[in-house]
Amino acid sequence: MNNPYLPIKTRIEKVIMETEDRNIKSFELSFINKEDEEKFQYLPGPFAEISIPGKGEAPFGIASSPTEKGVLKFSINRTGLFTEAIHSLEEGDIIGVRGPLGNNYPIEKFENKNVVIVSGGFAFTTLRSLTKYMIHEDNRSRFNNITVIYGARNPGLLLYKDELKEWGKRDDIDLNVTVDAKAPGWDGRVGFVPTVTKEVAPASEDSYVIVCGPPIMIKFTIPVLEELGFPPERIILSLEMRMKCGIGICGRCNIGEKYVCKDGPVFTLAQLNELPGEY
Amino acid sequence: MKEKTIKKNELANFVAGLLSDYQVFAPAKEEESLVLKEMQAEGDIDLDIGVGPVNTKKSIKEFFFPQKERFFSYDLTKPGEMEEPVLSDKKRVIFGVRPCDVNSISVFDAIFTSDQYPDPYYIKRRERTTIVAIGCNKPETTCFCVDTGGGPFSADGSDLLLVDLGDEYLVQVLTEKGETLVNGSSGFSEPKSGVLQKRDGIVEEAQKAIKSDIKIKKVKGWLDNNFDAPFWDTVHEKCIGCGTCTYLCPTCHCFDILDETKGEKGERIRIWDSCMYPQFTLHASGGNPRKSGKERMRQRVMHKFKYFVDNNEMVACTGCGRCVKYCPVNLDIREVLKQIQVS
Amino acid sequence: MPVSMCVCRLYFSKQSEKCIRCYACRNACPLCYCEVCCVDESQPQWFGKSVALSDTQVFHLMRTYHTAGRCVDCGACVRACPMDIDLRFMNKKIDKDVRELFSYEAGMDPEAPLPLNTFKTDDEDEFIKG
User: Considering the domain A8-101 in this protein, what is its CATH number?
Assistant: First the structure.
């Protein structure tokens, strides 16, 4: 019997400082045991509990794509004791991971449809996984137009800068990176994510849109999407809650009868509209 | 289902006979209350529990879901190494459990034996346990098991159920585990004529003694549509936010997972937690989706009588009445449900 | 150790063993007004959250000391405790100590300064110099 509470062992292969404020680092992990790697099957969307003995566990969205074989990636914002502890780890250190937990983006529904990704700030992690997955050569033909709208407060706070540059050169993905205000050396778009979404105006017909970002961004983006004609069934969100067990039983992350950790974190707006507003 | 009888004066013998193969736990009086205690030697616990409190103060849940569970131990100087505990597989009999507590096992099974995430700790403890339940001839005034789908002689979850007939017990043999116990002892006989009728009379009388009249389906129907009702603004007002109701509840199963380190050694543990505590849902960012007593009380009622029903087709309450009996401010869940019922 | 202390310690252990950490005593107590109780602190976590005897004892000791000189023996904690823990046993001891050391009885004079909340920087005792 698999014990859902025991972390598997991984090694930190690479640590990348993502942002200029030095608060977000990405960690690329490799599995120490081959059988753990084989069992760790996922599609973009789920999260995992990162475990540091003595510090506990905390949930983080998986930023790597399943197309990146053997690599597990997490991008972690330094906000408290636990994330501070992760930030102090170095390449070669051993770290525990429990997962994958929760559901994934409904990728099968995206097939032969346009996919629009709208994200802000630090929430881009699992959407990086999704984008990376969809534009992989094995998968790209399954989807129609892919539009990405991604914003940060300033250019220094954008995640995955090298990759964004690379994606910008491709003609099979419409990448729109924006920052909140003009900044020296920035010649890209300027404006808040909801405004840019309005400008880019992705077609809502035959399209799915995935929105992930700070609550304020989501609040102002949803009306824009509704105006563009996206029905709630095709607006997809990924929620954050205080999650502990990750398997739907410890009792803290439920919204109504749904557990964010097990039934989510990915929900359609239509599903969320059915649930009480306790989040 | 097989039915046997055993004379009351044979019972101690029967239980003593189990000691060679099983750990035996039975309700024992400690100060004014009952606790489930391990029997160390023949006769050290008086099995005649007909007088005094009917049920133990703490429920049976800690036998399967202890207040603290160790997942593994670690040593900070040895990164990556985990030492897992070896769980006992010694067979055990828990004797004298009341139907409300054995009924709670169905709730726990639904949570901890799911196909997707079976809980190895729970399952191991369940497997090694045989439960001898005893029906309640004289339910307490706080009991409301008949309203939550059980009853003072509800057998669901037990391996044997004893019915006190005065000078003897009628023994309902419900599972193979139960049968093994009965087969190992010579004290059992076939029920004499009239015994089953006598039992039926006792059951009926006990059921009638439970006066509360909660219509659980009606409650669910109201809860389905009234998350935002003004009712929630006031119903929690006298609650002081302690964990008494949830910790003594035989079905409450919320927990926390954390690390406790002393020096360089430590352990990752699972401990009971309570939805009534403000810290339970507090985010690291400082936000809290259940920020006041209102949201927390609503969560407790909703979880037991709506969410759990939606997900598992049963209420997460067995009507044992502990939360009613021990609440420091007499916040009576039956009253809450009745108010809902007439809403 | 004197026999009486031994007995006290045993009795205290026996009582603490019953604790389920529900915090009914704290929540019912009119003196427990801290916004975040020391047991709920996580940064740092002062003591363990499980029912290990040492942790439950520290909790009860901490609460007793924190209410020393203010506890008027109202008994709310005892009435609230679902496990029938004899919480007054500890409080009575502290009441007695406060009475003997500071000639002070909580609740008798609303104007009197609280013995454990009052200090003078020129106090001759060593402890104040810390």
Answer: 2.40.30.10
Question: Where do you find CATH 3.40.50.80 in chain A?
Answer: 107-238
Same domain, B226 and B195: no
Domain A240-279 maps to which CATH number in 1.10.1740, 1.10.10, 2.60.120, 2.10.240?
2.10.240
DSSP string for B117-174: S--HHHHHHHHTEEEEEE--SS--TT--GGGGT--TT--TT-SEEEEE-SSEEEEEE-
Nearest to C31 by CA among C129, C121, C113, C107: C107
Residue A79: per-residue pLDDT: 87
Asked if the C-beta of B307 comes within 8 angstroms of chain A's C-beta atoms, the answer is: yes
Using a pLDDT cut of 70, give the percent of chain B over it. Answer: 99
Check: CATH 3.40.50.150 for A107-238? no
Note the pLDDT tens digit of each residue in B284-317. Answer: 778 889 999 999 999 999 999 999 999 999 999 9
Residues spanned by CATH 2.10.240 within chain A?
A: 240-279
Say whether pLDDT at B52 is over 70: no
The percentage of residues in chain A with a pLDDT greater than 70, rounded to a whole number, is 100
Residue of B257, B295, B311 with shortest CB distance to A57: B257
Domains of chain C by residue range: 3-115
Q: Do C27 and B31 touch (CB under 8 A)?
A: no
Count how many pairs of residues, chain B against chain C, have C-beta atoms within 8 Å. 61
Give the number of other CB atoms < 10 A from CB of residue B1: 9
Give me the sheet containing A8-17, strands edge to edge.
Answer: A56-61, A47-52, A94-101, A8-17, A24-31, A72-77
Whether B158 and B249 map to the same domain: the answer is: no
- Which of B71, B79, B311 is nearest residue A5 as measured by Cβ atoms? B71
Asked if residue B141 and residue B276 are part of one domain, the reply reads no
C100 DSSP assignment: H
Query: Residue B51: what pLDDT?
Result: 57
Residue C128 has pLDDT above 70, yes or no: no
Q: Do A249 and B112 lie within an 8 Å CB cutoff?
A: yes
| Chain C residues within an 8 Å CB radius of B32 | 84
Cross-chain residue pair B247–C20, CB shorter than 8 Å? yes
- The parent domain of residue B227 ranges over 216-342
Note whether B98 and B191 are same-domain residues.
yes
Mean pLDDT of B127-132: 96
Name the interface residues of B facing C (CB cutoff 8 Å). Answer: 31-33, 57-58, 67-68, 240-244, 247-248, 256, 258, 260, 269, 271, 274, 277, 279, 326, 328-329
- Sort out which chain A residues have CB atoms less than 8 A from B111's CB and list them: 249
Instruction: Give the model confidence (pLDDT) of B82-127 as tens digits.
Output: 999 999 999 999 999 999 999 999 999 999 999 999 999 999 999 9
Query: Which helix (H) or strand (E) segment is B54 a member of?
Result: none
Count of the separate structural domains present in chain B: 2
* Nearest one of B286, B269, B255 to A251, comparing CA atoms: B255
Instruction: Return the higher-pLDDT residue of C114 and A171.
Output: A171
**Structure-model confidence comparison of residues A270 and C46, the more confident one:** A270
B79:A94 CB<8 A: yes
Tell me what pLDDT residue B19 has. Answer: 92
Inspect the interface and report whether the beta carbons of B71 and A4 lie closer than 8 Å.
no
Q: Does the beta-carbon distance from C49 to B328 stay under 8 Å?
A: no
Q: Above 90 in pLDDT, residue B180? A: yes
* Least confident span in A18-32, B215-229, C97-111: C97-111
Q: Where are the CATH 2.40.30.10 domain residues in chain A?
A: 8-101
Which of B209, B241, B266 terminates a domain? The answer is B209
Cα torsion through B125, B128, B130, B136, rounded to 10: -10
Contact between residue A50 and residue A27 where contact means Cβ atoms under 8 Å apart: no
Non-local (6+) Cβ contacts of B231 within 8 A are: B339, B340, B343
**Range list of β-strands (E), C1-130:** none
- Closest partner residue to B328 (CB to CB) among C24, C40, C52 is C24
* Domain edge (last residue) among B209, B238, B268: B209
